[in-house]
């Protein structure tokens, strides 16, 4: 059996390795049009920022490695131009010699990845404008940095790559401005969490322009839709990527609703004996079962392994994704898994939303604040999604949440998880458990939450509302919600008679814990409807800045 694989980065090389583990008899050939294979694309921003010392750490394997270890023939600088599914052959071009030839296959695996989107901006094709999708792109950017030594850069887009580059350019002494057409950075996050990310970026010297776009790129600046001119000796277009499906489409493979290649659980396309994997394929979401396209290196490796297994007679099946992702900007980690609040509402869920602010581990051993946003289905209690920002312990929490969602956990189940505790690693009740406690109180125990946006709407509605600031007087006097009255937690019991128990009552503190304690007192004393401000005054002030 002869297996041809098109593409040699994450998906393609994973497929080749698994196919060889399954079969010693198969001939396995990979065609890759670039010069580099099996590299860490996610590590490229950090190499640009000089946080990775050796090039070999990014590109640890070459064609010789795959030949010696796996007996796989890798041909770099070879582009597959056409796939003939009827005669089971491909047309290949040697990009060095220009020679065209055909090669026959028994099984074909398409791993053509994705390409960077270049919006139709005037001046986008100048020599100081780059995208970052490959090692070749990275080397071109590095050459430009070393020869032209730019002092200013504009990054168009605020996805993972753009944000990571903002840190690494800043570390090189470059003044960075990020431009985003949408009303928030990190479009995959909900706006309230994205606000925190933007504030953090700006606190580290990165200028951020949201609700704006680049209209023209000049030699030393860009002109925005708002007509503002921004200095830019270097421009990075990080406005997203799209699945590279042209080869599969021309061969007759069906595309999914997302525009990526449609595959089944075995990575089989609609064409016989043709598989696909990596960033070029459509996935399905574990929570909704609906098609999604979430290009992530982890998923590309996973689907590559499945394609290689099934192409050699295996029976591994793809079980779906949650879109679990994480990135770092300066010292801040940002992670998410499952549905966002926005997505859940668009799908018709009646959502319970919580903002949990807790320390990652014992503060006396270096614990840092985590902000965890949880989204659950109010009707079933099922956990739908989580977003986290913080400087410590974000990665392990998002993985716990992803595992819980994968196995259909309800919000209340989080409290019952038996998680490891010692002061250097966690708190006695882990922040994951606290998230479950907060959401269970909201869904099942009548201890409702109200978000900053909902509170603003309530205050503008004209309805009778008690707003209780349960913090100490000094904090209240420093700043507070406009119509709030200050009733410190320890004085609430003796101040109940001055409040209207029939009106909607909102309690708040700095982060939510004392607000919940005040909420419990009022509910236990017969107040009709008492809501605790999710995330406390900390989150409310973030929304107020908007």
Overview of the structural elements:
It is a single chain. The chain has about 550 residues and is an alpha/beta fold. The chain contains 16 helices and 30 strands. It has a 5-stranded parallel β-sheet. A 5-stranded parallel β-sheet has the order 9-16-10-11-12. A hairpin with a 4-residue loop joins β4 (about 80-85) and β5 (about 90-95). The longest helix is centred in the middle third of the chain and has 15 residues, at about 295-310. The chain is globular.
SS field, number of helical segments = 16
Compute the separation of the termini in Å: 61 Å
| Extended strand count | 30
- How much is the radius of gyration in Å? 26 Å
- Shape summary: globular
Oligomer type = single chain
Widest β-sheet, arrangement of strands: 3-2-1-7-18
Largest sheet entry: 5 strands, parallel
Give the rounded overall mean pLDDT.
95
Percent in helix: 25-40%
The low-confidence runs, each spanning 5 or more residues with pLDDT under 50, are: none
Class derived from helix and strand content = alpha/beta
Strand content: 25-35%
